[in-house]
Write a structure and sequence with these properties.
707 residues; Endonuclease, Chain A; 8-stranded mixed sheet; polyphosphate kinase like; alpha/beta; single chain; polyphosphate kinase activity; ATP-binding; kinase; Methane Monooxygenase Hydroxylase, Chain G, domain 1; 10-stranded mixed sheet; 20 helices; EC 2.7.4.1
């Protein structure tokens, strides 16, 4: 891109009061990549974060760039928060993506490769192997790989094959002996996803990893006999994976079939990115660009010293030989409000007090035990829950199946629009349906993102409702890696609210109001803005005020402008936003009183907490909702109010600890960039992902957010 064009676009972007969602997303991935550059991390940790950036970038192109192409291809107008229209924004976005791509690959080639070698792990091609090792590789190719490869030729007699999303593909240009040059043919050989990415060869003092593409490249001539190979190009495509089920007019006719059809469309969606090795066939590339209606800015070149698709690095990270070289996560500690975890009967405890869980510092087993115990308890009459994502071998599904077998009423809403988990959710939901559970496959025009559990139990002559509300999924795998909040309670006010909300989800009900829940799509945006405006009013009247919020993403413009108005009224606003953040902090006359931090480290920050000082009569909520248009308008979401003093102090302490962190924190600047936060003037390191394992009640009860 020409310098004057870059400067023009950057000038427009900086004039906007809002930061582009997509450009902000790329800044988030830069922070993840920065974790791979941290000197204190082992090379295996660095590989993990590099692999995460690759997975993130795949999803970014599938969803965000895919969405942009939906506008471009159908000539729909769109003005980004940056102020740029479709084509200029695409130019800017691709330019930023190329910069990030270059940074990724230079880090891998110049840092990761040498550090791996120091650890005795060597990535190499076949020329580095002994003759005996080469024979072993050749035998592996003949027996395990060759039968799985299918060359697909494209010429005047055969249609262009459907190349699969995110698979490595060899494009082979061939001619028959004696043919003219214009008789060239293209063939494609896809590398199946179920072949390990590296062939491993153990030596006495090292582990050699031969990329599978090098094994195939060495032997690809066996697939093209008696023809001349003019060129071999290794590439990978990314397809548009963005579809909006809510926009389908005939959704109610057969919702499940619509989801399945859309999943199939992902496999043949328009191509939005080509990653290709240097030295590729220009004739083939021109053909691909013309067929897929792409420009060269969608082509990402990879040097032979690097590799295509860093997600393959998970094979190294997950190798049992290196398990001890990854940092060991401390064992979970008992919740401050449930010190007798594992000893006392959880039903009895919840009748006496509420329990706040903070994962992964507290174990998810308390929730799983509650559901499993309920499935067996003869006094439990009903179990209702919403499910967004589950573990592959889910204890939740097994417990619900057991409950159904034991004659309990089980109602489950499975959100089959949970992106990339649709097929797993459909499969698990059908298991429950066959067992006699009442299963709802989502709500056609909304995505159910709220996390709710309701257990109804006979208790002598009375009925007790046990409730769990959370910010995270009922997924025991991700609960070890994601920071999340969960509240378990028998509080009658919350139980009534949750019961009413389930009636909305499963039936046709519109409650007039909830007492301790804020729900979307109806009330959440307006209620949160009302709380922000109350803080602004208090500040104007000289009263103490403060807004402290922790979310994954902040994108909703109405919320952003409410925060701007509060800042201009003198309200202290501190935001902890892990990923996308479209607000501009610290802009003179607009947002001087707004600070934004992002925490990126060993755990994925996933909890959402909203704190409003309210002149000392604090309002503290947690739940599943980010501050995004989709959360407020297109999802069923819930935030729950925490009233117990200890539990509210715990949520406040989470905010305070996040603000104090100087190991995993990045401070957002007014221009949308981020600076890593470091200990200043000899102050000790404060790593939020370690400090939560050390909490005690006394220190938590002393926390204050507003002086």
């Amino acid at each position: 891109m020409k310098l004057e064009v870059v400067e023009k676009y950057d000038s427009i972007i900086q004039q906007s009061d809002l930061v582009s969602r997509d450009l902000s997303w790329l800044k988030f991935n830069e922070r993840v990549l920065d974790q791979s550059k941290k000197m204190h991390r082992s090379v295996f940790e660095k590989l993990k974060f590099l692999a995460i950036t690759a997975s993130n970038l795949d999803e970014f192109f599938m969803i965000r760039v895919g969405s942009l192409y939906n506008y471009l291809d159908y000539e729909k107008e769109r003005v980004d928060y940056s102020g740029l229209r479709e084509e200029p924004f695409k130019t800017k976005l691709m330019n930023e993506s190329h910069t990030f791509h270059t940074d990724q690959h230079e880090h891998f080639s110049e840092v990761i490769m040498s550090e791996l070698q120091e650890q005795g792990v060597i990535l190499c091609n076949l020329s580095k192997l002994t003759e005996k090792e080469q024979e072993k590789v050749h035998e592996y190719f003949v027996k395990a790989i060759y039968p799985m490869l299918t060359p697909m030729v494209y010429d005047g007699y055969r249609t262009f094959p459907i190349l699969m999303n995110k698979l490595l593909v060899f494009g082979v240009v061939t001619t028959s002996p004696g043919d003219r040059q214009d008789m060239r043919k293209m063939s494609f050989v896809q590398i199946p996803a179920n072949i390990p990415r590296f062939f491993e060869i153990e030596r006495e003092d090292s582990l050699l990893l031969v990329p599978i593409e090098e094994v195939i490249r060495e032997n690809i001539v066996s697939l093209f006999r008696n023809v001349e190979i003019e060129g071999i190009s290794l590439f990978r495509i990314t397809r548009n994976g963005d579809f909006t089920l809510e926009e389908s007019e005939d959704m109610d006719a057969n919702f499940l079939e619509e989801v399945k059809r859309k999943l199939m469309e992902r496999k043949s969606g328009r191509v939005v990115r080509i990653e290709i090795e240097e030295g590729y066939s220009k004739w083939m590339m021109n053909s691909l660009l013309e067929r897929w209606n792409l420009k060269m800015d969608s082509v990402f070149l990879i040097k032979r010293t690097s590799m295509i698709d860093f997600t393959g690095l998970w094979q190294i990270v997950g190798n049992k030989k290196f398990r001890e070289r990854l940092p060991q996560i401390p064992a979970p500690v008992k919740p401050l409000s449930y010190q007798d975890e594992g000893v006392a009967d959880i039903f009895d405890v919840l009748k006496e007090k509420d329990i706040l869980l903070h994962h992964p510092y507290n174990n998810i087993d308390s929730i799983l035990d509650l559901i499993e115990k309920a499935s067996e308890d003869p006094d439990v009459m009903a179990i209702k829950m919403t499910i967004y994502r589950l573990a592959k071998e889910s204890r939740i599904t097994k417990a619900l199946l057991k409950a159904a077998e034991n004659g309990k009423h089980v109602s489950v809403l499975f959100e089959v629009k949970a992106r990339f988990d649709e097929e797993n959710n459909i499969r698990e939901a059908k298991k429950l349906q066959k067992a006699g559970c009442f299963v709802i496959y989502g709500i056609s025009h909304l995505k159910t993102h709220t996390k709710l559990l309701l257990i109804v139990k006979r208790d002598g002559g009375e009925i007790t409702r046990f409730v769990h509300l959370g910010s995270g999924n009922y997924n025991e795998d991700t609960a070890r890696l994601y920071t999340d909040i969960g509240l378990m309670t028998t509080n009658e006010v919350l139980a009534n609210d949750v019961s009413e909300f389930f009636n909305v989800i499963t039936g046709h009900s519109m409650p007039s109001q909830y007492q301790n829940l804020i729900t979307a799509p109806r009330d959440m945006r307006n209620q949160l803005i009302e709380y922000i405006e109350k803080e602004a009013e208090n500040a104007r009247n000289g009263l103490p005020s403060g807004v402290f919020i922790k979310v994954n993403s902040l994108e909703d413009s109405e919320m952003i402008y409410a925060l701007y108005r509060a800042s201009q009224s003198g309200v202290t606003i501190k935001l902890i936003v892990r990923g996308i953040c479209c607000i501009r902090p610290g802009r003179v006359g607009l947002s001087e009183n707004i600070e934004v931090l992002s925490i990126v480290g060993d755990f994925l920050e996933h909890s959402r907490i909203y704190y409003f000082h309210n002149n000392g009569d604090t309002k503290t909520y947690a739940g599943s909702a980010d501050m995004m248009v989709r959360s407020f308008d297109k999802r069923l979401e819930a935030l729950f109010k925490v009233e117990s003093t200890l539990l509210e102090k715990q949520l406040m302490n989470i905010l305070a600890y996040n603000l104090k962190d100087n190991v995993n924190s990045y401070v957002m600047q007014e221009d949308g960039t981020y600076l890593a936060k470091h200990p200043i003037g000899g102050e000790p390191e404060f790593n939020v992902h370690r400090e939560f394992f050390k909490l005690d009640v006394e220190s938590v009860m002393q926390v204050r957010l507003v002086d």
